[in-house]
Amino acid sequence: MIYFCNPSYTLEMTNSVLGTNNSSQNENKTIENTEHKKRRVKHVVNELGDLTQHNLKQLKVLNRDVFPVTYNEKFYKDLLDVGELAKLAYCNDVVVGAVCCRIDISDNRRRLYIMTLGVLAKYRQLGLGTMMLQHVFKLCERDGNIDSIYLHVQVNNDTALSFYKKFGFQIVSTATEYYRRLEPCDAFVLEHTLKKSDQQKKVTSTTTVASMNDVE
């Protein structure tokens, strides 16, 4: 969570009938062939799409069904201006998930904050969450000037914690009473520190030396 801006994945689910002994092998093969003709292979195509004024309402409905908190109109209005930082996730042309981010600058650090990342319950385990998180990583790679990615996760959300830890996120602190209307109300702050490329390090080093020379 292979990475492109608009990736797509196809999963094929098939079954087979195996013979149990030599005497019934031919019969089992006949049954298998018959069932194979009757069976339609199911294709699951996942892809990301842009957030626009025309599908903003779909995001509102999605968030209402996925998250236990309510987001105000300003939240959605601001998302229309963030470009690639907000994406809808489609499964067979149906909106079933979304990721929404922003860039935070504080304490001389430039970080990407994941505001929401969620998928409807019946469409989980299909790689949609991975696809959206990989989109976030790709954005940071393209930007080249983001120190880390971080987000809040409710302390009892073991599924989300396990998911993010698989991608290198670590608990760095606890935000007490972060969720005012939820129980438990505390949240873990998870962060994934990004490694700068050698070229970026070289640029940073050169800039630092130049600054020192200016002082001298």
Question: How are the SSEs ordered, and which strands pair?
Answer:
Blueprint: E1 9-13, H1 25-38, E2 42-50, H2 56-66, H3 73-79, E3 86-91, E4 94-106, E5 109-119, H4 128-143, E6 148-154, H5 158-165, E7 170-175, E8 187-193, H6 198-215
Parallel strand pairs: 5-6
Antiparallel strand pairs: 1-2, 2-3, 3-4, 4-5, 6-8, 7-8
Molecular structure report:
This protein has a domain at 9-142: Gcn5-related N-acetyltransferase (GNAT) (Aminopeptidase). It is 34% helix and 30% strand. The model is unreliable at 1-24, 34-41 and 201-216 (pLDDT under 50). By secondary structure, the chain is an alpha+beta fold. The chain starts with 8 loop residues before the first strand and ends with a helix. A hairpin with a 2-residue loop joins β4 and β5 (109-119). The chain has helices spanning 25-38, 56-66, 73-79, 128-143, 158-165, 198-215, and strands at 9-13, 42-50, 86-91, 94-106, 109-119, 148-154, 170-175, 187-193. InterPro entries: Acyl_CoA_acyltransferase (IPR016181), GNAT_dom (IPR000182), N-term/lysine_N-AcTrnsfr (IPR051556). Pfam families: Acetyltransf_1. GO terms for molecular function: protein N-terminal-methionine acetyltransferase activity. It is found in: Cytoplasm.
